Amino acid sequence: MNNTVNFRPTLLQPTLASRFFGQFLPKVALPLLAIALLAAPLFAQEAASTTAAATTALADAAKTSPTSNLKTWLGVDIIKMIMDADVVGKACLCILLVFSIITWSIIIYKYLQIGAAVRQSNKFVNECMARSASLEDAYRQTSAYPDSPLAQILREGYLELEIEDWYKLGYKLSDSQRAEVAKAGVERIFERTISNEIASLEGGLIFLAVATNASPFIGLFGTVWGIMGMFGDLSSLGDKGIAALGPGIATALTVTVGGLLVAIPSSITFNYFTSRVQSLTSRMDSFALELSNIIQKQLLKHEI
Questions:
Q1: Do the beta carbons of residue 212 and residue 269 sit within 8 Å?
Q2: Domain locations in the chain?
Q3: 183-240: per-residue pLDDT in tens?
Q4: What is the DSSP letter of 217?
Q5: Coil vs helix vs strand at 130
Q6: DSSP category for residue 204
Q7: C-alpha closest to that of 146 among 116, 186, 126
Q8: Is 295:157 a contact under the CB 8 Å cutoff?
Q9: What sign does the dihedral 43-44-49-51 (CA atoms) show?
């Protein structure tokens, strides 16, 4: 069998989603977060300096607008609590909003990316590997599965063997030595490819872990700061001090709720995606081992 293939190694073209989330989002996410961290106090200060008349007008509009139904549905008036928050509380809410936007962008992207990797890997194994008559046939079909880690393993391994001319020319090796050298070579390529695929699949998950751990503390900081201010004004409120603290404390607790709303989905999805990546990693290891044994057997049988 003639295994010489006329080809020019080219990188597989990424999908539109991969180009957007894999290249555009990482470049935008961190600058956006940095801008939010710097600008949030300014926005909060501007909001705090709004005149009393404007604040009263907004409160009246909130009471008469359809959004007041939130109090009926949820039992609390979220809009009013956000408006009544102090400068630090609003700054924390702005930061948490940016965290939420970035985390949900990552969640959507990782769901699509990992889902595509699983689907294409299943399809590649079922329709390509099971029906291909040779490694060459399987290699030619890998371009149809750009998101499959298994297809990338076969592709990179086959390219390595083709570049080395299957360890025939220039190598004074016996059949068994040739098989061992080829196996060692492709296993090295498989290990590198698996590491690259794992890095791609895990990309962005670190931010979910950061959001899971940092968001509750950001919310807690805003809440504690608000409560500190309330107790600081307690002496000036007289007999009505304790009763007057209730709305203020409820407003301060809104920031903690915001932190939990960011942390809970981040924690759930981080563990879910981590589990799926580990499952794919096990499949890649098993596939690479099986493919390495197939190559070694075909070399010993002089089939390639």
A1: no
A2: 16-48+71-300
A3: 778 888 899 999 999 999 999 999 999 999 999 999 999 988 888 877 777 666 665 5
A4: H
A5: coil
A6: T
A7: 116
A8: yes
A9: positive
